[in-house]
Amino acid sequence: MLSKRPDGYHEIETGIMEIPFYDILEITKSDTFEFIQSGINVDAVVEDNLCTRAFKLLQTHYDISNVRIHLRKQIPMGAGLGGGSSDAVAVLKSMIKLFELEATKDELINLSTQLGSDCPFFVDAGVQLASGRGEILKNISLNISPCFLVLINPGIHISTKEAYSSISCEKPLMRVEDILSQPMTTWRNRLVNDFEKSVLEEHPLIEDIKKELYELGAVYASMSGSGSTVFALFEEQVELTGSLEKNLIYASQIH
Questions:
Q1: What is the residue extent of each domain of the chain?
Q2: I need a surface site. Which of 1, 106, 230, 237 has the fewest CB within 10 A?
Q3: Which CATH class is domain 19-125?
Q4: Which CATH architecture has domain 147-254?
């Protein structure tokens, strides 16, 4: 976290990587707007859901009919995994295709930015370096293949607002881009998630998970975004037991 901006946002520099861990969306044309949610319960009114907001935003820019949106939620809420943001951009993309709108990529990025600072990433996804308030993106490559990725979520909901309210801004010794250009074996003492200092103090269980992953041989482990999910990279597939196995939400080989 580099600094607090005059507009109230924070100046950041972070790496974001797309992984094949999804919510499921089904969108069809309808006479009236309808939003249906299944899977993991989302504790929010329909009007506040990012899928609804994405549809309403697009409707203010284009003459389109109502739709029926069914979201099957599989990515935990408040987990630092960008699930809601990815859903919002998926709605925009799907609506553009469904109604055959002549929207440019720049227009899609502009709409995404209005929904959330990390939403523009999901226009192209892949692996990118995000700066500014998250909307300035640059494609990068990571030297992490092959490795085994696991995501552990302890079921603690951490709002982005909560995480930002306690963060301290410090100038890093190395830029994130420079660290990520090095082998992942060098990341442990260099690549720091600035949210961890306050979040781990408030939720020591998250720190315990991170320590356990390192004890199992993780090359690198960190809280994802503002938490509460912890991700770990191993050089080979690892077998989890106990609370790690219980709270495992994703595991996959990265090639």
A1: 19-125, 147-254
A2: 106
A3: alpha beta
A4: 2-Layer Sandwich (3.30)
Angle, alpha carbons 82-85-89 (nearest 5°): 135
Q: Kindly calculate the radius of gyration of the chain based on its CA atoms and give it in whole angstroms.
A: 19
Within the chain, residue ranges assigned H as helices are 50-61, 83-98, 105-115, 121-124, 160-165, 176-180, 196-202, 204-215, 242-246
Q: For residue 117, report the phi and psi dihedrals to the nearest 5 degrees.
A: -65, -30
Q: Pick from 6, 8, 10, 23: which is nearest to 169 by CA?
A: 10
Query: pLDDT (tens digit, 9 = 90+) per residue, 95-119?
Result: 999 999 999 999 999 999 999 989 9
169-187 per-position pLDDT tens digit = 566 678 999 999 999 999 9
Separation of alpha carbons 75 and 80, rounded Å: 10
Q: What is the sign, positive or negative, of the torsion defined by CA atoms of 130, 125, 213, 153? A: positive
